[in-house]
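Wed. Picked up where I left off yesterday with Glycerol-3-phosphate dehydrogenase [NAD(P)+]. The coffee machine is broken again, so keeping this brief.
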Amino acid sequence: MSELAELKKKIPTQVAVLGGGSWATALVKILSENNVKIKWWIRRKSDVEFIRKYNHNPSYLTDVAINPRKVKTYSKMVDALAGVEYIILAVPAAFIPSTLKDLNKKHFEGKKVVSAIKGMIPDENLLVTDWMERAFNLPLGQTCVIAGPCHAEEVALEKQSYLTIASPDLSLAQSFSNLLNSRFLQAHAIQDLYGVEYCAVIKNIVAMACGITRGLGFGDNFQAVLVSNAMQEIKIFLDVVYPEKNRDLNSSGYLGDLLVTAYSQFSRNRTFGNMIGRGYSVKSAQIEMNMIAEGYYAVRSIYSISRQHNIKLPIIEAVYNIVYEKANPMLEMNKLKGFLK
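Structure written out below (tokens, as returned):
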């Protein structure tokens, strides 16, 4: 290797992380394991100041130690974006338009944008990558998405974890994967950006369905049938909306991500659904959780898209009816039984 190449190898990659939640905190921890300098934007100035003083996020994953040599926190987004190579979006999808409202396409020129968001832009029924392309004229070849199976809480505990990075530009996905690989995490690259992104959205809706059935008192047997049927619904949806010959839905970026979200105690969408099944209203469940369940917003978008394409998705429809049409959860799940095999 030449002297110049050796020098470049030693220069840290500059990355901006936008968002102060649990997944953003986990990503900061993961990136800190490698030769990366992180500029971390957090909305609340009090959290920024706390992290600068105590090297811990006071609101999420509070036990994670933040490395001050590698991480600098910012309350002004434009300062966090200056001079970075990668921008990681890690705020809830519903807040993306308001979070980025003061930016323009110049802020993204020459930068790679990574979506760590597993949701859709409400009302517009757009994936985050599509919204970024429309709002900032950002080419899909400059974007990639992060998929699981991986929960922030297990990253905090340094449990062995895996991530899937998807981009139409496989070299971009591979380069970003290299920034994430560490002693407790492995990332691999694929090109199916839309397939991975849609699957990540739908699996949150399925996790809500699993939570609802648990809250109603259904057991493991029913959940196994529910999840296996959900995988079939994902295939039906993707085959119509974005078909891809070489897509392997049995791999970890699809099936694995679905399973961990459907079954894990750390799944906020499953928790949200469980509360609905136990009789909470949507509003009261949201207030008590104090976290965003992406599936709540996503189910309306996926339901709308499926109607446009005349796709029959019984699980999606059941969850939509429960959370938006205020259908009785037990009656809706009893009706769903007839569609499951």
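Quick read: The two ends are 58 Å apart (CA to CA).
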